[in-house]
DNA sequence: TATTGTTATACTCTATAACTATA
DNA sequence: TATAGTTATAGAGTATAACAATA
């Protein structure tokens, strides 16, 4: 059953101060300057740390937030569909969902059509938490927009869309 | 001394096929559509998987590659400087360097000025491997450029630079 | 006191294999 | 036989704390 095995995070999701992310002027990056992957990684570190810090009041990781958002917008989704949508391993999703279920934010209902599937849906408290989380996430995004400039923010969203 | 403790990777760096990364049309992403972090993560997954696959002949992870590049371009760097430059934890860098040292690609020399520091430098085989790796990485980057279009590639590099 | 390299611990995340129950 | 959910395992990566040697 694995009912309450490893379900709850022992420690709340941590967020360190986004450290000064650009390299010191004195160290040459050489070939890294031409690699998109290098700058994407740095951007990811910065953005995720800021996101985690901003969402601390609701104690949701980026992955948990994305699960709540997509589940809230697609009633009765199966775990496999959710995993494929968010590029999260099905195996990992199991424990992630356990935690959200334990917190009373989400339910796994038996699928009427297919006995193997779970139909995922948010509970009323889940909806409330999601609404709070969305407001905080919007604040995070607004901070990003301010930092980057609205133009660049829009441009990045569009340019990264089809990866 | 921890000479050969946990130093070598048991399994070569894996790279799965970049799976179809955009979500199925039928599942609504809702609020995620407005979040840069979501698309940055997806881009990172894609780019890193492609990088790992392309560099398989030299068996170097993105982190190892970046360490070789920066060490090769900055003689006598300390571990702390390297860690800060690449946003890798000092503690993690220790084992990463052990592996590269064991493979004979890199040396930790005593710093003449400061007894606490190591002066990092590539060995001749390290330089050879780095040259091969750079050629492969350039091929990876060219693939990205083709996929995105030269304009968008350039634009992304510029836009992500100051994170 | 502070910093460098190091070890240790705990947790997240990725990748895989295998099992069960359903289909 | 295939798929959905699950468990388990191994490794990478992140975050912290603490320690010895050196500054």
Overview of the structural elements:
The structure is a homodimer of 163-residue chains. Chain A is mainly alpha-helical. In chain A, 54% of the residues lie in helices and 6% in strands. The first copy, chain A, has helices at 36-54, 62-73, 79-86, 90-102, 124-148, 150-160, and strands at 106-110, 118-122. A two-stranded antiparallel ribbon of chain A has the order 1-2. In chain A, a hairpin with a 7-residue loop joins β1 and β2 (118-122). In chain A, α2 (62-73) packs across α5 (124-148). The longest helix of chain A has 25 residues, at 124-148. At the A-B interface, α1, α2, α3, α5 and α6 of A face α1, α2, α3, α5 and α6 of B. The structure holds a DNA duplex (23 and 23 nucleotides).
Quick synopsis:
The structure is a homodimer of 163-residue chains. Chain A has 163 residues and is mainly α.
Strand content of chain A: 5-15%
**Strand-pairing-aware structural class of chain A:** mainly alpha
**Weakly predicted, low-confidence segments of chain A:** 1-7, 17-23
Helix segment tally of chain A: 6
Helix percentage range of chain A: 40-55%
How do the SSEs of chain A run, as a string of H and E? HHHHEEHH
Mean of residue pLDDT of chain A?
89
Computed over alpha carbons, the radius of gyration of chain A is 18 Å
Specify the oligomeric state. homodimer
* Main beta sheet strand tally, sense and closure of chain A: 2 strands, antiparallel
Number of strands of chain A: 2
Major protein interface: A-B, 57 and 57 residues
Principal-axes shape call of chain A? globular
